Amino acid sequence: MKRGLWAIGVLLFVLFLSGCGARSELEKQAFVVTIGLDKGEEEHQIEVTFQVANPQVNTTQGAEAQNEKPSDTFTITADDLLSAKELAQSSLSREMTFSHLQTIIVGEDLAQDNLFHRIISSAMIDPEMRREAIMMVSKEPAQEFINANRPTMETRPHKYYEFMEDSWRETGYVPISNLNIFFQRTDGELFLAAYATAQRDPKHGVDEDAFLAGEVPQKGGDPVQIIGSAVMHSGKMVGKLNGEETRIAQLLRYHNLIKTMTASFPDPNNEEYRITVIMNQKSHTRIKVNTDQSPLKIEVEVPVRVQINSNLSLVDYTTSKKKRDHLKKSIEKDMEKASDSLIDKLQEEFVGEPFVWYAHARKDFWTAKDYVDYNWGQKFKDAQVDISYDVTIINYGEQLRPPTLEKLDKED
């Protein structure tokens, strides 16, 4: 009996230790945190840019790496991503791994090519490819974007993109886009990817959120701007949405990922000024889809909670119900107008929608084949879409009663 127990103990001991057989020391690995994909000079070839983090920078071993760069960037030309990964080992002493991959940046030229979907799909065979990796489209080649992106406030490249994604949830200017969502929406639905550039082409006289990447009138600071979205249909880029349109696209979803966002509207009681508000959704967007009607009818109601953040006109809203109602209706009208404009653009240019409204239509069909035969994209193109906003203003700023212009004139 004792010998039998001893044999079982040895066997279990060997089984537990066998898991360490395929281990790899951290110092022997090269952690890729960013990948850039561009079209190659030869047909059906791509240029893959790898940004490899230096694990010693900003760690307890930082004193030993004071003169070292936080990351190393190089480009390999190959037939596909996994081939490029193998070829990179010809000049890299450490074993390259995608286990810490955070971001995949696609040059706009490649994103508009049918080749892109095949490249990224075949790369998912690698078990190290993370489906939660951020997916971005750059106006210029991804190689140029990665080399130009040298943020002054963050030397660690993986932290830079992580912090940027957190800020997108606060502003709504950029969609939350990753590989997992991309693969979910490659069968006719529209997918919104973050749009970025390091090239400046500032626009003036534009509303604060109606910008695309590169158009924000900025002086100094980091060269990179990330705002707006690249519209992808069946895995291929077909157009762009600016920051305002991207925000609306997220508000029209049943489940909005934006926590809060700041926006400004013309003051209806003094149109020389604009009122800045902080808004969020008090509940889920209400969506009704009637597939039995021809043309297809979609009714959407967006409940929005608003608080006044800046009132430059100094109009006294706290003591006048008429002015408060006027402001509420004015905000609702402006948001409905912008939403209708976005719907027209989607129906005319893209023949699809990124709001996941199709999920509300699928429940009306008995089988998947019935839904496919319905051809949601074409039905949406001719659909009658009614969008309304239910705005609730919860406060009008910190002051109970803002001073009026007449009172300020007397004090001066």
From TrEMBL:
It comes from the Bacteria. Residues 228-397 form the Spore germination GerAC-like C-terminal domain. GO terms for biological process: spore germination. It is a lipid-anchor. Keywords: Germination, Lipoprotein, Membrane, Palmitate, Signal. Signal peptide: none annotated. It is found in: Membrane. PANTHER family: SPORE GERMINATION PROTEIN B3. This is Germination protein, Ger(X)C family.
